[in-house]
């Protein structure tokens, strides 16, 4: 396993980790991965994520299980950001589009689909 290069930020950040199970259909999983690739992801969605104050977002997949890692500034407020994100251009369209992969309502917002995970271990100082 090679790992992933990260750029460390200066100062403190908040990290959010969430999970979501998508449909187990291999074809749908392949399409879901395609639509999240750099080539096919919607620029307005990436721009909106940054616009609400998210510094970095990563998705990891194993089978039909997804984990999302979000890094933001220490003063970031999740609910305020998600409320704003839901109003940005094409966001509702994107959520409706990916709902077919996620097996949820087309009207569901991102923060209604993804479930927060609790950190239970870290390399303590």
Roughly how many Å is the radius of gyration?
15 Å
Give the H and E element order.
EHHEEHHHE
In the CATH hierarchy, what is the class? Answer: Alpha Beta
Q: Strand count, sense and closure of the main sheet? A: 4 strands, antiparallel
In the CATH classification, which architecture applies? 2-Layer Sandwich
Strand order of the largest sheet: 2-3-1-4
Low-confidence stretches: none
The secondary structure category is alpha+beta
Count of DSSP H/I helices: 5
Number of domains: 1
Strand content: 15-25%
Calculate the terminal CA-CA distance, rounded to whole Å: 26 Å
What integer is the average pLDDT? 94
Fraction in helix: 25-40%
Q: How does the overall form come out from the CA principal axes?
A: globular
- Enter the CATH topology name: Alpha-Beta Plaits
According to DSSP, the number of beta strands is 4
